[in-house]
Amino acid sequence: MKSSAILEPTQGLKKRHTLPSTCHIERATPTPDPLGRIDKIVRGLLGSGQGPSVTFVYEDLKTHEWAKQLHQRIAKLAGSEGVRASWWKIADLSAPGILAGAVSSAVRADVIVVASRGEGLPLPFYVWVNLWWPHRPESAGTLVALVGNPEPRAPRAGPVGDYLSVVAQQTRMSFLKAEKGTAVNGKHRIAKRESTTSTNGHNGFHGKLFLNGFR
Fold first, then answer.
1. Which of 47, 90, 115, 179 could potentially form a cystine with 58 if both were Cys, beta carbons 3.0 to 4.6 Å apart?
2. Which of 71, 42, 40 is nearest to 55 (CA)?
3. What is the H or E stretch that residue 105 is in?
4. How confident is the model at residue 195, as a pLDDT?
5. Which residues of the chain are modeled with pLDDT < 50?
6. CB of 56 within 8 A of CB of 88?
7. 187-188 and 183-184 as β-strands: parallel, antiparallel, unpaired?
8. For 142-164, how does the pLDDT look when each residue is reduced to its tens digit (9 = 90+)?
9. Do 179 and 165 touch, CB atoms closer than 8 A?
């Protein structure tokens, strides 16, 4: 009969209309806060009634904004004790009087924050570092690097974040690093990687640290 020609096998019908019984959905893993340990560090500095002493060194308006965000975070944690903050622009460190003040501040600070675009810094910055690090108390303090991702073809004297990591090791300071996005063609570029490192030992360097990222 002609009617039998249009019938489909029962098994074929089941296959056509059967839907998957389960659906797997991948959930995004939250990115850990690269500065998460700063909360514990700041809380450990409270109790004296004076609040933590923080030295901020920044490169330009953009990096100053990064530093301000961290200052607000620390101030919120410090509460009524407040934050004893000092601010220094890297370009101003070429002036002897400003350099002396920035060195004195860094020697006494509980936390030192360096905010840079990460493309290498002028010589006065490295002079500043070499003047304060030998006078830091051992096994005390925290060094924080807020660094941007440099342009692929941008000239640079050496990775600032790596340099500051060596400084932290030499001075036995804890070290935290957060990479920030930088503006590219009017748009905000998101950093590819953020990391946190804690260092509390020597790395084999002796004597003066190298300048401009080189020994």
1. 115
2. 71
3. helix 96-108
4. 37
5. 1-16, 19, 23, 155-157, 183-208, 210-215
6. yes
7. antiparallel
8. 999 999 875 555 544 458 989 99
9. no
Q: Report d(CA 60, CA 83) in Å as an integer.
A: 22
DSSP SS3 for 209: coil
Quote the pLDDT of residue 188: 36
Q: What is the DSSP string of 188-199?
A: EPPPS---B---
Output the pLDDT for position 31. Answer: 66
Within 10 A of 6 (CB to CB), how many other CB atoms are there?
6
Residue 73 — φ and ψ, nearest 5°?
-65, -45
Residue 159: CATH number of its domain: 3.40.50.360
Beta-carbon contacts of 140 under 8 Å, excluding residues fewer than 6 positions away, are: 172, 173
| Integer Cα distance of 121 and 158 in angstroms | 9
Residue 190 in tokens: 């998101």
* Number of domains within the chain: 1
pLDDT recorded at residue 154: 52
**134 is a domain residue:** yes
Helix or strand holding residue 87 (H, E): strand 84-89
Residue 8 lies in a domain: no
Check: CB of residue 125 under 8 Å from CB of residue 131: no
The strand order across the sheet containing 84-89 reads 84-89, 53-58, 111-116, 142-148, 174-180
